[in-house]
Amino acid sequence: MQDVAKILVFGNICLLVFGFDPYTLPHFGSDSKSLSSSEDHALLLGGAFDEIEEAVIYRHVVPMCVWKFQKMLQIGVEKKVARYCKILDEFLYASIEMKKQELSTLGNNIINSTTEKRDLLTHLLVEEEKYSNKFLRDVSISLIVASRNTVSSALTWLLWLVATHPDVKKRILEEIKQVMTTKTSSSGGFLSEDELNKLILLHATICETLRLYPPFPIEHKCVVEAYVLPTGHCVRKGTKILVSIYSMGRMEEIWGEDCMEFKPERWISEKRNIIYVPSYKFMTFISRPRTCLGKTMAFMQPKSMTSAILWNYKLDMGKIVS
Ligand code: HEM
């Protein structure tokens, strides 16, 4: 399920960043020559992201000298990293060049288009011509990496929790029916942003999913300067701190006695608004100053996808075949 969700999210983020869907594109790069379709090419890119993300985790668990040595000799995991980075670079630089050509062909038509309709690359290139290709590549890759695994993990757990809690599923469907207009029901059940904002129970269900199953279960920080924490603990410069976001989402002293239960209602006030929970309690998006910049999008995508799935299909857990 998460593999399908990753494909969906990758397509969405590419639309946002580049303005095109990678599943409909011609192939870029030497590694893609043997591929028979755009879909295969997009899967190759997805695979490259997966491999690199795994290698980044590896770099966190082995001593730095080990992976640096492997990198220098181009052996082991680092050999794979170099290959997959090349695949991604070819895709990203070709996408940037394509966008630049499109801009020079369409010129004023794009420049005069409303900013809400522009993809990120167009926006950056129209606002500031001097950004280097490397800068544009780095911005694009950060957004793809930040959203692909996180949103797909959230969506997978969300669908599983909804499928295994028929009462919640029934009430979400009733909520969708209430906000849905004739226009959206005839367009396949894809709700507008305003309609999605009215889905309070679905929003609460996503919060509850992210509390119990945070896509980043552990956060890793390094102390820059010696500091005394409010608890009185001294931390020395260079100390590595691991915060278990997963455990914090299941702590009785934070969430109460029913902390292990799936209860979307805990996020809804008597007046049917979402209850604000400070980020130092609900750590899924980390606290300031480095809080997640894509939080709104992190809710919008699962909301839009889940409401369309529930509207069009019957969501149930299939039989597990051993
Ligand atoms: C359920 C989905 C998501 C979760 C749980 C999540 C969680 C997080 C977390 C924990 C961080 C802090 C990482 C760190 O400092 O080590 C972070 C940072 C970030 N996230 Fe998200 N994220 C999600 C979706 C997204 C999306 C969809 C985008 C944008 C398209 C995004 C963009 C970013 C960016 C740009 C940062 C870096 C912020 C900075 O360092 O200043 N995230 N996210």
From TrEMBL:
The keyword Iron applies. InterPro entries: Cyt_P450 (IPR001128), Cyt_P450_E_grp-I (IPR002401), Cyt_P450_sf (IPR036396). One of its GO terms (molecular function) is oxidoreductase activity, acting on paired donors, with incorporation or reduction of molecular oxygen. It comes from the Eukaryota. Its cofactor is heme. The keyword Heme applies. Gene3D superfamilies: Cytochrome P450 (1.10.630.10). Pfam families: p450 (PF00067). This is Cytochrome P450.
